[in-house]
């Protein structure tokens, strides 16, 4: 299993996980849910106590991934398979994002 913290403007908003079978989960952090002033990270992932589950990486996170020649360079430099979307997200979304959301890998899980 691989996990990462999802940060919104530097504050932990939730947790993204990829299970060993390749399926994904996203869950909002309790503190984030309790604060009515905190928004959902995406219109497609509104705030809820329920865990979001998917066989594929959620489209919101896929849209954060590099494409084309940028993807090839990132994969080569980080020794990633081009189909390892979670790995690509961990390699790029810690500091190379357009919006308010960044992703921080949690080590040793």
From TrEMBL:
Keywords: Kinase, Transferase. One of its GO terms (molecular function) is kinase activity. Residues 5-103 form the HipA N-terminal subdomain domain. It comes from the Bacteria. This is Phosphatidylinositol kinase. The lineage of its organism: Bacteria, Pseudomonadati, Bacteroidota, Chitinophagia, Chitinophagales.
């Amino acid at each position: 299993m691989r996990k990462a913290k999802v940060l919104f403007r530097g504050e932990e908003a939730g947790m993204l996980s990829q299970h060993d079978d390749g399926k994904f989960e996203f869950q909002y952090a309790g503190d984030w849910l309790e604060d009515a002033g905190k928004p959902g990270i995406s219109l497609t992932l509104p705030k809820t106590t329920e865990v979001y589950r998917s066989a594929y990486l959620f489209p919101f996170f896929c849209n954060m991934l590099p494409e084309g020649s940028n993807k090839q360079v990132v994969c080569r430099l980080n020794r990633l398979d081009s189909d390892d979307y979670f790995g690509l997200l961990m390699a790029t979304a810690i500091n190379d994002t357009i919006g308010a959301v960044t992703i921080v890998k949690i080590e040793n899980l």
